[in-house]
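In practice, a research group might receive sequence data for several interacting partners and want a quick structural hypothesis before committing to experiments. The following worked case mirrors that situation: the sequences arrive first, and a predicted assembly follows.
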Amino acid sequence: MMALRERAIVSLRSAPSLPRHVRIQYDPVRQAFAVLSPEKVFWPNEISLDILRRCDGQSSVERIIADLAADYDADPQDVAADVVAFLQEWSDKLLVKL
Amino acid sequence: MSAPLLPPIGMLAELTHRCPLQCPYCSNPLELLKANRELDTQTWLDLFSQAADLGVLQVHLSGGEPTLRRDLEQLIAGLSARGVYTNLITAGVGIAEGRIEAFAEAGLDHLQLSFQGARPVTTDRIGNHRGSHEKKLETAHRARAAGLPLTINAPVHRHNIEEVPEFIDLALSLDAERLEIANVQYAGWALANRDRLMPDLAAVNRQADIVAAARERLAGIMTIDFVTPDYFAIYPKPCMGGWARDAFMVAPDGTVLPCHAAQTIPSLRFERFGDRSLAEIWADSPAFNAFRGTEWMQEPCRSCERCEVDWGGCRCQAMAIAGDAAATDPACVKSPIHNRMAILTDAALAQAAPEGNESFIFRRIGATTRPDTPAEPARR
Ligand code: SF4
Ligand code: SF4
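A structural hypothesis for the assembly, expressed as tokens:
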């Protein structure tokens, strides 16, 4: 088989970004943020949106978790589990680059 | 109609019916429009701008072959300026030097490239165009070199269903993010060629297994979207995500349609952009309102728990097979005439000509006007 790429696995050191074919955009008609991808439009909830917005290719997963835990005043352990699971799922769908 | 009217999210713009290929499964109508019926640049730009105002977030630029429009760069730039996500759906044959780069420059977000086969002989035979496979490979390389994300689209039928594993390898080798294995939908030219294209059940099942295994193996490497074959289904697909619910299409002459095949429903009258605004057509066109929501449904759909899952399936398939556009899609196991699907597939297979010897009605202007009265089929 000719797999040129490999499946990426989230680690605390990954610096996730949005691939070229995915973008977040505010939609004034529906007054909500949409994630646009080749076939689908997603309407992320507040937490998903907060994760995706931090996928700037600079911030590490560790940093993103710390930021969100502070913003939401939540236990970093719980936040970590959610963030890692979310990023792995989106990476497996090629909507986030790790 | 009781549900509130929502703004559309997606739009398919068929910029032209002209195309260098002649795929016998083409979803265009049998009566193809010539170049002199196409909207001009400014009208498309106005239409796109109204679409963005209305809430459209994504436009699929299609045809025919959209790159035959010399103003395609301008159209992409117009959409991009409004923040609309643009997806170019191309057959990838005969795109002049430098243009793919120009599309990327104009803001194109994504390119979808069709392959009629995974093998060069198949591609060339199905599209009835010698050398097309080679040109498509080149288009894929140029698109990736220009930094464009790529989907490979594989329309599947009897003559290439065994090539599904090769399609997967082809898409990987071309560095595509996404592969669409799309079983042909029997409308338009595909309906006229149904007996010549229908696969058999064993092949359909093998294909489903191969796709399921590949999806698992390729998680995080390549996305595979699978458009399942209606004629072998238990439940229908939510055609267009529901009639006039969140998407629509525009024909080359500006006729605004709820779906590809809507013009095969004789009771409906359609409106053209320019005669009315897009917002008026979306909200008030009787053709759009005819099957919007669930009010129009008959039994068994009316009281079915899936009525807002699949919206009763495809109106055009109901028209073509049940003879009533408001009937339950016969692809549904609850349809009183569901068994007709099996009868039609059996009849198609009984007539199958030996491979390489089939007489497709190739898609071209004037080849046929109605599916039941085909003109002399083109043989090659
Ligand atoms: S399906 Fe084939 S003939 Fe039809 S528009 Fe696409 S490439 Fe052209
Ligand atoms: S009966 Fe109608 S609504 Fe129910 S599953 Fe079949 S097509 Fe869908």
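Before designing any experiment, note the following. The pocket of iron/sulfur cluster (ligand 2) is lined by residues B 235-236, 300-301, 304, 306-307, 310, 312-313, 328-329, 332, 334 (CB under 6 Å). Residues 201-217 of chain B form the longest helix (17 residues).
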